[in-house]
Design brief:
The complex is a heterodimer of chains A (503) and B (97). Chain A has 16 helices and 19 strands. Chain A is α/β, with parallel strands linked by helices and 503 residues long. Chain A has a 7-stranded mixed sheet, with helices on both faces. A 6-stranded parallel sheet of chain A has the order 7-15-8-9-11-10. Chain B is globular and about 30 Å long. Chain A: Keywords: Electron transport, FAD, Flavoprotein, Mitochondrion, NADP, Oxidoreductase, Transit peptide, Transport.
Chain lengths: 503, 97
């Protein structure tokens, strides 16, 4: 019925899609092949990259068995520990991931750490396919003087802290020694931390924010937050939804200098090519013209500081913590290679007093033993998800080893970016499978899940199965109900493991 | 009923990570006939914020969860953006090998 129109970039008309029924006996789609041998897949990391990969592998071929391991007892990666407490709609995707985990051909193994409970080479001997999806658990740093002063944290640490990640529950940032907080960076994570510092705690009290963080924020003396970027409004990395939200916070005056909004021809070209930049710039322009009400004690301040790069962190008077930052004014120059505008120092400096600094300049992945790693980009060298032996041009493909998510692309994008990233990696895996790269008649048959269980038993490693997470989930929700919160997060390792085993 | 709900009722694979809460762009659809696109109410700021991030955005793109069935839309055809090998997300341009 009707003509099939071909549009660029379209796959096919929705009406002509072959329906896919998601069930325990899901049939393979277009892949050819008769009766399939089981394909044992291990995904390391249970965030969006890991779960989208598991889902697509299960749909992509008959006989796939996927085990997802994670070093935490709780699954879902940054959906649980990164997405801000006041963004609950972004967490709804865990429903979809839970359905994947419920598939009989999929198993979750929490509290299992690659590198200590088992090595990469053990994993590759146990599974036909290993997909590394363990993200980026470290931070970029400035490498400037004073960076190790107390009171300076990475945004990742701060976000893990207010989200109750068991590695950061003892961070104890001091929110009472100052009225000024500086956030370095202007991406969505920077906006998240600024917003959590500024939002009325009565609003935060009904979210899943960690209880100790809510307490700390209730006694916070921070009244001014500075969002500092090296470049200008056109280069700010945040997106419209988050910007609109922070500009609309009640009881917050927003300060943006009109002079910072001047645009060069290069800026205009950047905006011409990007709908996101155009809309972000419009929001910032409108906010700059809003007349600020008199600042009474109830109103907090959000300052957008552009064209400033940090050169030093300076100690407070008693020397114990950070007391101020030295910033250098910048100009934008064409980088001469890619047409990108970079910030260049002008030799003019100024000081900004502050008692806490949150660095939000990017996450970084961690290398592991036996895995090639591009130290400069902070990713595993790969070709469409196939791990390469190095970043050089003569690198070879590592058989059966793949990468997905931030470990593959770098720490950018949103939850949905991993959907397309996983599609690409899974396409590579299925292509390699069709070419017979995983069948080696001379080699030993890989044991998959059975092999993993043997290794874990030998090491006495007590893993948390998905229903162990479900016990944690049930307890958190029940405790949350008593306080009008969607959940009260369990934030200590021993308590998480205990809750996983109860009942 | 939204197009997202209609897709799921008919076992069509349209992603819906946030289940219609305007917090993602995974249900992005392309309205194939501009006449049908013009019959729809303009997207809100919130929908536009999500469309900003949609993969393969076009001039007649909408979020499937925000397009509600009505008699005037009878026969509307919606396409799903393709996942190409050299995908471009967030302005990323793949470097030539």
């Amino acid at each position: 019925m009707g003509r099939r129109l071909l549009l660029p970039h379209t796959r096919r008309l929705m009406l002509f899609l072959r329906p896919m029924r998601y069930s325990a006996s899901a049939t393979a789609t277009a892949t050819a092949g008769s009766l399939r041998d089981p394909l044992h897949v291990c995904v390391v990391g249970s965030g969006p990259a890991g779960f989208y990969t598991a889902e697509k592998m299960l749909k992509g071929r008959e006989g796939v068995r996927v085990d997802i391991i994670d070093r935490l007892p709780t699954p879902f990666g940054l959906v649980r520990s990164g997405v801000a407490p006041d963004h609950p709609e972004t967490k709804i995707v865990v429903n979809q991931f839970s359905r994947v985990a419920a598939n009989p051909r999929c198993s979750f193994f929490g509290n299992v750490t690659l590198g200590s409970d088992l090595s990469l080479s053990e994993l590759r001997k146990t599974y036909d396919v290993v997909v590394l999806a363990y993200g980026a658990e470290s931070d970029r740093s400035f490498g400037i003087p004073g960076e190790d002063l107390r009171g300076i944290h990475s945004a990742r640490e701060f976000v893990w802290w207010y989200n109750g990640h068991p590695d950061m529950c003892n961070l104890a940032p001091d929110l009472t020694n100052t009225d000024s907080a500086v956030v370095l960076g202007q991406g969505n994570v920077a906006l998240d931390v600024a917003r959590i510092l500024l939002r009325c705690t009565t609003e935060l009290a009904s979210t899943d924010i960690a209880d100790y963080a809510l307490d700390a924020l209730r006694s916070s003396t921070i009244r001014k937050v500075y969002l500092v970027g090296r470049r200008g409004p056109v280069q700010a990395a945040c997106t419209a939804k988050e910007l609109r939200e922070i500009l609309g916070l009640k009881n917050v005056n927003v300060y943006i200098k009109e002079a910072d909004l001047a645009t060069s021809p290069a800026d205009k070209e950047e905006m011409r090519n990007s709908r996101i930049k155009r809309r972000v710039y419009e929001l910032l322009s409108k906010a700059a013209t809003v007349h600020q009400e008199n600042n009474d004690n109830d109103r907090k301040e959000l300052h957008f500081v552009f064209f400033r790069k940090p050169t030093k962190f300076l100690p407070s008077e008693d020397g114990s913590t950070v007391g101020a930052m030295e910033l250098e004014k910048t100009l934008l120059k064409d980088d001469g290679a890619t047409g990108k505008q970079v910030a260049v120092g002008t030799g003019e400096f100024e000081e900004l007093k502050c008692g806490i600094v949150l660095k939000s300049i990017g996450y970084k992945s961690l290398p592991i033993e036996g895995l090639s790693f591009d130290k400069y980009r902070g990713v595993v060298p790969n070709l469409r998800g196939r791990v390469l032996s190095s970043e050089s041009e003569t690198a070879t493909v590592e058989p059966g080893l793949y990468v997905v998510g931030w470990l593959k692309r770098g720490p950018t994008g949103i939850v949905a970016t991993n959907l397309h990233c996983a599609e690409e990696t899974v396409d590579s895996i299925l292509e390699d499978d069709r070419k017979g790269l995983f069948t080696d008649p001379s080699g030993p048959k890989r044991q998959g899940r059975r092999g993993l269980l043997e290794i874990l038993e030998q090491k006495n490693a007590r893993y948390v199965p998905f229903d162990g997470w479900e016990k944690i989930d049930t307890k958190e929700k029940a405790d949350g109900e008593l306080k009008n919160k969607p959940r009260e997060k369990i934030t200590r390792w021993n308590e998480l493991l205990e809750a996983a085993r109860e009942g | 009923m939204s197009m997202l709900e209609a897709a799921h009722e008919n076992d069509i694979e349209l992603e819906g990570a946030c289940e219609g809460s305007l917090a993602c762009s995974t249900c992005h659809v392309i309205v194939m006939d501009v006449k049908d696109y013009n019959k729809l109410e303009d997207p809100t700021d919130e929908e536009n914020d999500m469309l900003d991030l949609a993969f393969g955005l076009t001039e007649t793109s909408r979020l499937g969860c925000q397009v509600i069935a009505k008699p005037e839309l009878d026969g509307v055809r919606l396409a799903l953006p393709a996942a190409t090998r050299n995908f471009a997300v967030d302005g990323f341009v793949p470097k030539p090998h």
